[in-house]
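Severity: low
Component: inverse-folding endpoint
Summary: output formatting inconsistent between runs
Steps to reproduce: submit the following structure tokens with default settings.
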């Protein structure tokens, strides 16, 4: 999708280095890949939204997450409003399609065309590039059962 210029998050390398953990920096800014089955969200089955760890943009919904057994969180589609950009990546022997956050430029992972219905796509995403927001936290209308400040 097109992202308004004013919405773009542009930071210097030094600023990203300060904001991110070393592993996040390596993956998101240097196109690294976390080791398979080590990511926080590989086996996360809770309902909620996965946001960009760099800028907080909502990227994937838990409803689109599926078991790919690849060792990385996998989704068959980004959210309809997600700023997910794709770039052909020929850095390996085969050409892969790199996926990034179009808002802050963070590398997320890769997309393959061997995913399940309805899209047939498999977004293979590094856990460190994502933050998970549980559905309960997003429902601010529900007051907490016990208020510690009361
Ligand atoms: Zn982002």
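Observed output (run 2 of 3):
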């Amino acid at each position: 999708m097109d992202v308004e210029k004013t919405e773009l998050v542009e930071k210097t390398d030094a600023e990203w280095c300060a904001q991110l953990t070393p592993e996040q920096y390596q993956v998101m800014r240097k196109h690294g890949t976390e080791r398979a089955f080590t990511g926080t969200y590989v086996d996360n089955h809770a309902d909620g939204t996965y946001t960009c760890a760099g800028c907080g943009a909502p990227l994937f919904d838990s409803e689109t997450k599926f078991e790919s057994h690849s060792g990385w969180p996998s989704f068959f589609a980004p959210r309809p409003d997600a700023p997910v950009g794709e770039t052909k990546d020929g850095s390996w022997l085969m050409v892969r399609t790199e996926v990034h956050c179009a808002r802050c430029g963070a590398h997320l992972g890769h997309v393959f065309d061997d995913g399940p219905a309805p899209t047939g796509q498999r977004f293979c995403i590094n856990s460190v590039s994502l933050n998970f927001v549980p559905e309960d936290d997003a429902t601010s209308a529900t007051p907490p059962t016990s208020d510690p400040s009361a």
